[in-house]
Design goal:
By secondary structure, the protein is an alpha/beta fold. The protein has a single domain, classed as TIM Barrel (Alpha-Beta Barrel). It has eleven helices and eight strands. Helix 10 crosses helix 11. It starts with 8 loop residues before the first strand and ends with a helix.
Amino acid sequence: MPSAKDFRGVYALLLTPFTRAKEVDYKAYEGYVEWQVSHRPNALFGVCGSSEMVYLTLAEREKLAALAVKHAGATPVVATANLEPSWEAQVEEVKRITATGVQGLIFVTKGYGDDQERMFTYLTELASHTPLPIVLYEFPGASPHRMSGETFGRLAATGKFVAVKDTTCTMAGIGEKIAVQGESAVLQANIPLLQDAYEAGARGVAATTTTCGAQLFVRQWAAFQKGDLAAARLAHKHILLLDDVLAGHFTASAKYLAGLQGAAMEWVTRSGQTLNEQRLRAIELWYDWAKPILL
């Protein structure tokens, strides 16, 4: 069983490719997983918000998680496991995603942000149905979603919860969790605050931009780990430019950019995002400029 220290670093989030008929393109997904692994992230985050997970059936999520494990090689895979509406269905979901072979499960905070005690009880009780470590996710798609530092500290102290994907998007909120993280890891999702969060003690990243630019995050994290702040801050600036190019049209924009880099897929989404001529050209121009730093 992996330790909490194994859940630090760069999580490369996985998109879900769709055909033009909006069916999951599993063949494209397999190639995309292998392409993500080639960038040497510390882990793959399958079945996430960037995977358009709320638009996928449980059977689709289960198959995507299993395929990610199959094609990830030695790279660990984590996947969300508590999206179903009822408690009974979530327990079954936890068991099914556990059986895919993932190294850890992701639990979203399920809209319990207004009742932190209920959130704590809910998460600890659900965690009892799997032997796997749990990464927490303040998923904005189920608001109120934010977890207090106190709640995170209590969960981290159990040893079962090894990381949290923080989406407070404030240094105060991030710092509150860093102060109580213990052996667990605060993973940052906000791009402008990413380098500041690292320097404050965050231990990794799980951000939408990793879906098509994970190599930049790996470079930033490696430089930071070596103490080369100048190189880490430069990589962060490149990431910030990428984030701006993708904004407002995600996940279609990320799919198009991944395709330009060789991870062949349509930029079809189930979420309704699409790309107009201007956005397509903006992505192409950014990619033409960024090719040297993406290699």
